[in-house]
Specification:
This protein is mainly α. It is built from 20 helices and no strands. The protein has a single domain, classed as MFS general substrate transporter like domains (Growth Hormone, Chain: A). The longest helix is centred in the middle third of the chain and has 31 residues. The protein starts with a helix and ends in a 9-residue tail after the last helix. The relative contact order is 0.16.
Length: about 475
């Protein structure tokens, strides 16, 4: 069965069983209704859920290409092993600044045609696609770092409102279904995007090597395709999905007028950060250690695999570029597992609860990440990716499903942005200290950064026990 047939098979199955799926989701995670002031939300059918989530396929194309190839680009342009995390720091800092601001602004936006979240989907997609076209053409290290900053900021502009989109449009019994559908498209987008460099070099026989300081053509074409798909997928959601207007437009306009101004916005954001719901604070600790692990993996898998399994650190060698291609295949596997298990995790959570499901998935993923240290054969490196894919699937679904009922409807976008602080803060920590640890304690053996990530993921799993999930 070819790849597109496999995707169609899973979409068809989801369509065929959508009624039983909704029933199961209602049983496992009937999140509490959002706070007063919301309008009655109609139950959406399969195609409506499909349309509102499809943009995530494009967004994940951007993230997957970034995660699998940016370290490779940095090293090709002359970065040393211990410099890579600092060069990556643009991404989490951008998220830290952009996400709550975009969430706050999107909460306070309304246009008769564009709605509340879709203007941000649209703008972010335009700038992300431009950045994807420019990134592989960077001719200097500083230029690549700057383009990473622009790319990550643009992706965040599109992505952050997508989480709030679920809370806006779906009633409580469908919210986990919405997040699972997003996870499904995240998985598909990441699978295809991660595989592109390998596909271009091994199937179409486009060169994956180039002179020192030049990005190989296989990587360039992958980013070009990514830019096109990012824009197309997000535009699909923008033009196929309508948003629900405020229940009382006049009251909404009056409240917006009273609370306008930059100063008030800063005050409201600051107060909101320090008045997070209790469930959100508990999940924040779990998220910190989870994303420390994933960021360690994204930064260091390419140099680690090149060094540990291909026995090279020479970025101009074919072995190094082959390692970079194979990392794309590895990332394809963990993302593929994530969209398959997006359908299976709710069944497990139905019997053991969302907390226990998330705990088990994170511990399995952590063990898988540590095991990369002991594997010298490239093909066997796909095995730990299965475990990591399980953890990734749970990370993209369970925390948001647990959190959804704890957030006030009129601040859904803002709090989803604040929740992402605990994705970007660990990334900043990783970017600040991993290079030092790799250089001083691990003697430039980058594989041990993955071991640190695996330990962090296991800690995150164990800390899931502190979370109170009132809608088990």
């Amino acid at each position: 069965m070819v790849f597109d047939e496999i995707i169609f098979f899973y979409i068809y199955k989801l369509s065929a069983f959508k009624q039983s799926w909704s029933t199961i989701i209602m049983a496992i995670s009937a999140t509490t209704a959002t706070h007063s002031g919301t309008v009655n939300k109609p139950k959406l059918n399969f195609m409506q859920l499909f349309n509102m989530s499809f943009g995530f396929l494009g967004i994940q194309f951007g993230f997957a290409l970034q995660n699998a190839n940016v370290s490779r680009i940095f090293q090709t342009l002359g970065a040393k092993i211990d410099e890579i995390p600092i060069l990556w720091i643009a991404a989490p800092i951008t998220g830290l600044l952009v996400q709550p601001v975009i969430g706050y602004l999107s909460d306070r936006t309304w246009h008769p045609w564009w709605g509340r979240r879709r203007p941000f989907f649209f703008a972010g997609a335009i700038f992300s696609s431009i950045a994807l076209f420019l990134m592989p053409n960077a001719s200097a290290l500083w230029m690549a770092a700057m383009l990473l900053w622009i790319l990550d900021a643009s992706i965040n502009i599109s992505m952050e409102p997508f989480r709030a989109f679920v809370g806006d449009k779906l009633e409580s019994s469908q919210q986990t279904t919405g997040f699972a559908m997003q996870t499904f498209f995240i998985g598909i987008g990441a699978v295809i995007a991660s595989l592109l460099p390998y596909f271009f070099s091994n199937v179409l026989h486009i060169s994956n090597t180039a002179a020192q300081g030049i990005i190989p053509d296989s990587v360039k074409y992958s980013f070009y395709i990514g830019g096109i798909i990012f824009l197309t997928a997000v535009m699909w959601t923008v033009f196929s999905t309508k948003e629900i207007p405020p229940e009382n437009m006049e009251v909404w306009k009056e409240e917006k007028l009273k609370k306008s101004g930059i100063f008030h916005g800063i005050v409201e954001i600051s107060v909101g950060i320090f008045s997070m719901p209790k469930t959100m604070m508990q999940l924040a600790v779990v998220q910190f250690f989870t994303w420390l692990a994933f960021f360690s993996m994204w930064i260091y898998t390419t140099p680690a695999v090149a060094q540990n399994a291909y026995s090279t650190t020479d970025t101009t060698s074919k072995q190094f570029q082959d390692a970079g291609d194979w990392v794309g295949v590895m990332f394809m596997v963990y993302n593929g597992i994530s969209f398959i298990t997006a359908f299976l995790l709710p069944f497990i959570a139905r019997y053991i609860g969302r907390k226990s499901t998330h705990l088990i998935c994170l511990v399995i993923g952590g063990v898988g990440l540590i095991s990369v240290l002991f594997i010298k054969t490239p093909s066997l490196l796909l095995l730990p990716m299965v475990a990591i894919g399980l953890a990734w699937s749970s990370t993209l679904t369970m925390p948001y499903a647990i959190l959804a009922g704890a957030l006030p409807a009129n601040k859904m976008g803002f709090y989803m942005g604040v929740f992402n602080f605990f994705i970007v803060i660990p990334q900043i920590v990783a970017a600040a200290v991993l290079g030092f640890f790799v250089r001083v304690f691990f003697h430039d053996q980058s594989i041990y950064a993955l071991v640190v990530g695996g330990i962090s993921m296991i800690i995150a799993g164990l800390l899931t026990n502190i979370v109170k999930d009132v809608n088990r």
